[in-house]
Amino acid sequence: QCPGIEPLCLDLADWDATEAAVGAAGPFELLVNNAAVAMLQPFLEVTRAALERSLDVNLQAVLHVSQIVARQMIAQGVPGAIVNVSSQASQRALRDHAVYCSTKSALDMLSKVMAMELGPHKIRVNTVNPTVVMTDMGRINWSDPQKSAAMINRIPLGKFAEVDDVVNSILFLLSDKSAMTTGSSLMVDGGFLVS
Predict the structure, then answer these.
(1) Which end of the chain has fewer beta carbons closer than 10 Å to its terminal beta carbon, N or C?
(2) Are 36 and 57 in contact, with CB atoms under 8 Å apart?
(3) pLDDT digits (tens, 9 = 90+) for 163-184
(4) What was the pLDDT predicted at 2?
(5) Residues labelled as active-site residues
(6) How far apart are CA 165 and CA 145, in angstroms?
(7) What are the C-alpha distances in Å from 154 to residues 137, 141, 191, 195?
(8) CB 139 within 8 A of CB 125
(9) Strands 185-188 and 30-33, bridge-based pairing
(10) What is the pLDDT of residues 7-38, one digit of tens each?
(11) CA 17 to CA 1: how far, in whole Å?
């Protein structure tokens, strides 16, 4: 749907490969960090492997890719926007989500610090924080009415998010229509956090 966009397939935990590939792909004006893993385990059963993988993808990769892109933006002297895809789970404890909730909370705070430090360079940084999104994976994990009912009953709008709900929020935060918005978290949760 977007001609001229060339995807890069990378292991974001490999900092050297990421630096080389992303560094060569610029120049950039916009960045969306959307890579994430959700390795769900009860708190008492969290493994070191799950913690390390989650930190690598959900937090460290965002920091590293954002550094590469922001340095290019600053070197070009152009304003830019970065949107980090977080989650409602950054602000609400969910059973078996100790690691996921923690990495998404850390991502929200990283985004605020980025906004503060990159603002003088005219680079805005925000997060979108969706509820369950009906991607292919979301449909597989949440299509069982018995499983989904408890979550949907806590969402005032009574449904999960569709991909377009998240995409449209990201597009808003990337656009000049949000030119005075930085360091913010845009909830795309159907009201989950107010229930």
Answers:
(1) N
(2) yes
(3) 999 999 999 999 999 999 999 9
(4) 66
(5) 100
(6) 22
(7) 21, 17, 8, 6
(8) no
(9) unpaired
(10) 788 888 899 999 999 999 988 999 999 999 99
(11) 27
> What global pTM score does this model have?
0.94
Token pair for 50: 């799950």
pLDDT at 137: 80
Q: Under 8 Å CB-to-CB from 3, ≥6 apart: which residues?
A: none
Q: Tell me how many degrees the CA angle 88-91-97 measures, rounded to the nearest 5.
A: 75
Nearest to 152 by CA among 100, 104, 101, 189: 189
Q: Is the pLDDT of residue 4 over 80?
A: no
| 171 CB burial (10 A radius; 0-12, 13-18, 19+) | middle
Q: What is the pLDDT of residues 127-149, one digit of tens each?
A: 999 999 999 888 888 888 988 99
**What is the amino acid identity at position 167?**
V
CB 94 within 8 A of CB 52: no
pLDDT surpasses 90 at 56:
yes
Distance from C-alpha of 186 to C-alpha of 87, rounded to nearest angstrom: 10
Task: State how far the Cα of 107 lies from the Cα of 189, in Å rounded to an integer.
Answer: 17
